Amino acid sequence: MSQDHIDPKVYELYDEYCHSTMSRRDFLSRAAALTVAGGSALGMAEALLPDYASAQEVSFTDERIKAQYVDYPSPGGSSGQMRGYLVQPEGEGPFPAVLVVHENRGLNPYIEDVARRAAVAGFLALAPDGLAPLGGYPGNDDDGKVMQASLDPQKLFTDMHNSARFLKDHALSNGKLGATGFCYGGGVVNQLAVVMGEALSAGVPFYGRAPASEDVGSIKAALMIQYAEDDPRVNAMRDDYEAALKAAGVDYVMHTYPGTRHGFHNYSTPRYNPEQAAIAWQRTLDFFAVKLA
């Protein structure tokens, strides 16, 4: 089912489902009660649920990369240990490094695939699993969302910060660190830019929460900030964020992608906008190629 055939009321309910403790059962039940034009609201809701099996772009067996799960210390985090998905490009390195931060449901197959795509483009990529202290991504987004919500937010962020440090200092890294992330992960990228200062060279947050305006002056990284056109919750923070970036003299650019909704880069649901996602991703790779050289 395409974006054009899904009623806006179903999209709004799905956004609430993604960003709250609403269960899948309640989401589908509430969708079934909606009255929409052009079909069944329940069918539209079911179409929005992720289909990872058909979404993979780069296989984990692709000969251009070497992928493995790695464990590393994370002092001050949820458990003191972390696990991530490390993907190495062809060649001996060292490579520019890119942290890939997941949404609010752990390291699902989509984010692993994004890490592989970054590695194919020549970056040493690490996708940390914030759910590692709880046993890791459970195999479905519903349980993953509940698990992530149960974690202390500051400790979870500490795990992401430690992951960034681990990647920057990795033997295969050239010492230049970039970070990209989606939804929750986009907010993490913005906050990493605040706390890491010059240790982060570049950040590309996709539809993520902006940092507090009073903290923006600490940002030293170059930023490419990606927005969906129809994303009221995140876009409400944009004007204040841009004003703070300008006042602080941060090297930044913002892009808004026409005809898109929150999550438009995630190709596992009908929110995916192939044309705009391709433009946004190529811009991301080109940005990192320049800023991490």
Gist?
With 293 residues, the protein is of the alpha/beta class.
What does this protein structure show overall?
- The chain has 293 residues and is of the alpha/beta class.
- The protein contains ten helices and eight strands.
- Strands 1-2-4-3-5-6-7-8 form an eight-stranded mixed beta sheet, with helices on both faces.
- Strand 3, helix 4 and strand 4 form a beta-alpha-beta unit.
- The termini are far apart.
> The CATH topology of the largest domain is what?
Rossmann fold
Given the C-alpha coordinates, what overall shape results?
globular
Largest β-sheet summary: 8 strands, mixed
* Low-confidence region ranges: none
| CATH architecture descriptor text of the largest domain | 3-Layer(aba) Sandwich
Helix fraction, binned, reads 25-40%
Taking strands numbered 1, 2, ... along the chain, how are they ordered across the largest sheet? 1-2-4-3-5-6-7-8
Class from helix and strand fractions: alpha/beta
